[in-house]
UniProtKB/TrEMBL annotation:
Residue span(s) of domain Adenosine deaminase: 7-325
Matching SUPFAM superfamilies: Metallo-dependent hydrolases (SSF51556)
UniProt superkingdom: Bacteria
Matches recorded under Gene3D superfamilies: Metal-dependent hydrolases
Organism the protein comes from: Rhodophyticola porphyridii
Family of the protein in this entry: Belongs to the metallo-dependent hydrolases superfamily. Adenosine and AMP deaminases family.
Keywords: Hydrolase, Metal-binding, Zinc
Protein name, as recorded: Adenosine deaminase
InterPro entries reported in the protein's UniProt record: A_deaminase_dom, Ado/ade_deaminase, Metal_Hydrolase
Length: 329
């Protein structure tokens, strides 16, 4: 079994956070912006701790200023994902960073992103769908125009609504208005919870927002009743173990709860979150999971089946993906 070429489905990827360092360096050079400080000698992103990570992330993404930049970003990110066997990816897109939440501007950014995604699908066979996310620490009022952007552009490409940003800021229930609007527009619902927040934050995402999936959600392991609830209801966790280990949510791969959650019947999936920032790829995640927990072909096949079932795409796309996966799942 070659883990690198195994076809994969990724459900949790921040488009800007997936920007390859060489792409950001090139764009900064074109624009005459000096970003030398944010790169290591071997060309990766350089940061000391979580706070520094946030400032390096902000500096890197500050060079992305127009629809054309986002089109080029999409091309670079999808090429990288496809190189690691990803055949379907769902990317978080933030209208806050694509036109400041203005609907007209958002439509222009989205058209550019979509065009790049269509080109990548034609050349590399990778399918992309978008999940619109307001930024939690910008507050619930700021989320409303973002929800409107999501609702107005919901369709074949924009299929989900989530929330990113600082998980410790404010309460999820204060965003219910925005989530209701997204749901009424036919969008599927996920939310970051249970990464930095405890099991209670996962309960909030379930009870206050009615999520079908939880971004991370791994702190659920603290609460046996929640683990049972997840297993019984089939709410899917978008686990990103490499991200959690690098950011210190868990001290090591061995201590990451993904295997415990899986064996207790929780529907887990694997994604990379902001891969170059965490020096990871989907192949690397698979390799570490195989090494750490002895995951074999059957377990990876189950993982992919779960991700396929939980993907926020239409049924025709799901069937096409299932056909591509047939020999491996
Ligand atoms: Zn995330």
């Amino acid at each position: 079994m070659s883990l690198a070429t195994l076809p994969k489905i990724e459900l949790h990827l921040h488009l800007e956070g997936a920007a390859p360092p060489a792409f950001i360096r090139g764009l900064a050079a074109e624009k005459g912006i000096d970003l030398r400080d944010i790169f290591t000698e071997d060309g990766g992103y350089a940061y000391r701790d979580f706070t520094h990570f946030l400032s390096v992330y902000e500096a890197a993404t500050s060079v992305l200023t127009g629809p054309d930049d986002f089109a080029r970003l999409t091309t670079a990110v999808l090429a990288e994902s496809a190189a690691h066997g990803v055949i379907y990816t769902e990317a978080f897109l933030s209208p806050d960073f694509c036109g400041g939440g203005d609907l007209g501007a958002w439509r222009e950014y989205l058209a550019a992103i979509r065009e790049a995604a269509d080109r990548a699908e034609a050349s590399d066979g990778i399918v992309m769908r978008g999940i619109v996310t307001p930024i939690r620490h910008f507050g619930p009022e700021r989320a409303k125009p973002i929800a409107l952007c999501a609702a107005e552009t919901a369709g074949e490409f924009i299929t989900g609504f989530g929330i990113g940003g600082d998980e410790m800021a404010g309460k999820l229930k204060d965003f219910a208005w925005s989530f209701d609007m997204a749901r009424e527009a036919g969008l599927r619902i996920t939310a970051h919870a249970g990464e930095w927040g405890g099991a209670g934050s996962v309960w909030d995402a379930i009870n206050d927002l009615g999520v079908e999936r939880v971004g991370h959600g791994v702190q659920a392991i603290e609460d046996p009743a929640l683990v049972d609830h997840l297993a019984e209801t089939g709410v899917v966790l978008e686990c990103c173990p490499g991200s959690n280990v690098v950011l210190g949510v868990f001290p090591s791969w061995e201590s990451h709860p993904i295997e415990k959650l899986r064996t207790r019947g929780v529907r887990v999936t694997v994604s990379t979150d902001d891969p170059p920032f965490f020096r990871t790829t989907m192949s690397y995640e698979y390799g570490r999971l195989a090494d750490t927990f002895g995951w074999d072909e059957e377990i990876f096949a189950q993982l992919t089946r779960t991700a396929l079932e939980a993907a926020f795409c239409d049924e025709a796309t799901r069937e096409t993906l299932a056909k591509k996966l047939e020999p491996s799942i």
